[in-house]
Amino acid sequence: MAGTSVGARFYRQIKRHPALIPMIGFIGLGMGSAALYLLRLALRSPDVCWDRKNNPEPWNRLSPNDQYKFLAVSTDYKKLKKDRPDF
């Protein structure tokens, strides 16, 4: 096996065991979903501050009806009113 590339060994294993194809597909789908979710958290979450100079506290600029959670089951953000002071 010396001198063979990783891709060639992988292809040989897939040819030998075709039942691995769905497992590899689901693992790839899970890894892709996790990467997209982390990207969404990094770009859309108010807890992450990329620009400290122009916006040092991004969580203070959220209005009460901004939905920043991924899934809100029982909360309707359009009906919420402001209950905190301005800073």
List the main descriptive attributes of the protein structure presented here:
transmembrane helix; mainly alpha; NADH dehydrogenase [ubiquinone] 1 alpha subcomplex subunit 4-like 2; 87 residues; membrane; B12D; 41% helix
Number of helices: 2
- DSSP strand (E) fraction? under 5%
Q: What is the overall silhouette?
A: elongated
Poorly predicted segments:
none
Described by strand count, sense and barrel closure, the largest sheet is: none
Cα Rg = 23 Å
What is the domain tally? 2
Q: Could you tell me the number of beta strands?
A: 0
Name the helix and strand elements from N-terminus to C-terminus, one letter apiece: HH
Spatial gap, N to C terminus: 66 Å
Mean pLDDT level: 79
Quickly give the structural class. Answer: mainly alpha
DSSP helix fraction:
40-55%
Overall description:
This is NADH dehydrogenase [ubiquinone] 1 alpha subcomplex subunit 4-like 2. The chain crosses the membrane at residues 20-43. It holds the Pfam family B12D. Helices cover 41% and strands 0% of the residues. With 87 residues, it is mostly helical. The chain has two domains: 1-44; 49-86, no CATH class. The radius of gyration is 23 Å and the shape is elongated. It starts with 5 loop residues before the first helix and ends in a 43-residue tail after the last helix. The mean pLDDT is 79.
